[in-house]
Write a structure and sequence with these properties.
The chain is an alpha+beta fold. It contains two helices and five strands; from the N terminus they run βββββαα. The chain has a three-stranded antiparallel beta sheet, covered by helices on one side.
């Protein structure tokens, strides 16, 4: 019997993928925090690690609103 693999949806492209293929993001008072371990407390959202199109400001507005530009820049520097 195979082990269950949790799936999550990317907030930018809306594709469902295994949790390990996505990067978790957290909205905090101080701004957006990138959680590479996926274990920090709080409500998070996920974005594709391997798809630069998902790191664009316009695609992230649904999740981050006005903080989307800062999040986009943080993702590009973190993942590039």
């Amino acid at each position: 019997m195979s082990k269950h693999v949790p799936e999550r949806m990317c907030v930018a492209c809306r594709r469902r993928r295994p949790k390990g293929e996505l990067l978790r993001l957290l909205l905090r008072q101080a701004g957006v925090e990138i959680d590479p371990t996926g274990k920090k407390p709080g409500r998070g959202a996920y974005v594709c690690k391997d798809s630069p199109g998902c790191w664009q400001e316009k695609a992230l507005r649904r999740f981050a609103g006005a903080r989307a530009k800062a999040l986009s820049e943080a993702l590009q520097s973190f993942l590039a």
